[in-house]
Structure formats: structure tokens, C-alpha cells
Amino acid sequence: MKMTFQKLLIGASMAIGAIVATVPAQAGTLTGATIGGTAASDYLVYDSNATNTFTVANTSENVQKILSGNAASPTGNVELAASSEQAGFDFTKNTSLTGTIGGKTLTLSSLTSDDLFGVGQKTTTYGSSNLANTWFNDVVNTYSSLFPTSTLGKKTVFDTFLKTGGFQRFSDPNISYVNQDDTSGLISIGLAGHFNAAPLLGLSSSLNVQASEIVKYTYDGKTDYLYSFKATNSGLLEKSDGISHSGNYEVTIKGVPSAAVPEPSVILGLLGVAGVFATQRKLKKASI
Fold this sequence. Notes:
Elements: H1 2-22, E1 28-29, E2 31-36, E3 43-48, E4 52-56, H2 60-66, E5 77-80, E6 96-101, E7 104-109, H3 113-117, H4 131-142, H5 151-163, H6 166-169, E8 174-180, E9 186-193, E10 215-219, E11 222-226, E12 231-233, E13 237-238, E14 247-254, H7 264-287
């Protein structure tokens, strides 16, 4: 009897250990979200219903609430550097969203002119080695049939885009959600944008062109930039203009996996089984 009881306890312990090792924690989301940057007040918070997005008060509670969505249901968003399309916009300043995900700090930020055109030796010339040209060339290469093939033609489009505020317009990301797969560590970030961005790129609205805004991130000691040319239909339209936030662009970061944690109910269930065996053993021992 003693050996049988020991075997049962060992089996229960092994089962608990196996579950701890193999059952991943639920997908995590960004917590403790705060707004900062050198233009910390330049942001808007959009909540949503089943049809529209609409502005709500800029409170920490509202910021945290809208970040709980995912690709299937992107909900609202936080627009960083919200005044980017207004006259007098200060393109030297940024607005950021910072929080914790998987135990590590993640900062998402709008871009400044330094980010796009380089610090110190800043140049807005087509063909320069900077992020503005990298992103622009990626757009042109993705939709090569819609843009001029000659260098002069591309330069003309680039210069027009620059003069009409195009780079500012694509540097104020709208963050709709931030989630992490706790097994792979992959961090998924939703960027709310136009499902058809053709007019924003100076192209006919009859064309179907998808291009997200650019977001800057800092995570685990690395800073880089993310953007996408593939959108899913969000099912939402911004209430005041009837077109914004119609597309959801998902970009990703290779994050650090969190430790696997089993469901509390599973642990309690196994501990309960072990407890029953222990109680039965004590009762039988007392009756001897």
C-alpha cells in the first residue's frame, strides 16, 4: 500500500511538472501604458463600436482600454503626433507610447525629421541614404506599375510627396493593439490606417494601394522602424471623415518568450487529486 501511494504522488507530481513545462501562458498584452516623448500631449485616443471609431478623452484608462484588441477585432487606437497634418507642426518632436509586455519595456513612437532624413547631415534629397528614401523606394517597388520607372520621374514624385507633407502624414502611427505570443515571443502590433492609401500617395483613389504609417520602436536594447503594405479590413470607419482607420496593418517584433505558466484551474485540480490521496492514506493509517 505504501509503495502504491508513493507511486500515485510521484505520478501526480510528474503530471504537474509536465503541464508546467508544456502549457503556454495566455497571450499577453501591453500593460501600464503611458504617453511620453518630447510632444507628450500631441495624441488622440479613439474608441470604437461595431461601425465607427471616435475620439474620447485622453486618459490613461482609455489608452489602456483600446489596446486590448487583435487582428480579428482591432477596436480603437491611439494616434501619436496627432497634429502632424496641421500647419505649424513641429517635426523635430515626437510622441511615444510606452508599456510593459512579457516583463520587458516596449516603446512605440512617432517619427521626427531626424528619423527620416538623418541626424546632423540631414538631407531631403531623393537618392540619399536614409529612412525616407528606403520607405519611399519600398512603396515604389511594391507598386512598380503605378510609378515612373526613370530616376527623374521617381525624383519628381518624391519631391512632390515631400513638399505636400507626405512624410509627416506617414509618421504619426495609430496604435490599435499590442499583443505577444508567450510561446514564440512574437509581438504583434496593429496599425490603424487607410485600407486604400492611394490618395495619400498622390495616386488615384480608383487604385487599391495599401501602405501603413511608420512606427518607431525600442525593445530589449534595440531601436528600429516598422511598416507594412498589407492590410485587412477593420470593419471600422472614423466617424468624422468616414474613411480613416478602415485598414488594419499588423507588424511584428521578435520578442523574448515569457515563461510558460499553466492555467490555475489545472494546477488546483492536480493538487486536489494529490490531496485526496494524501487524506486517504492518513485515514487508512489511523485505522490500523
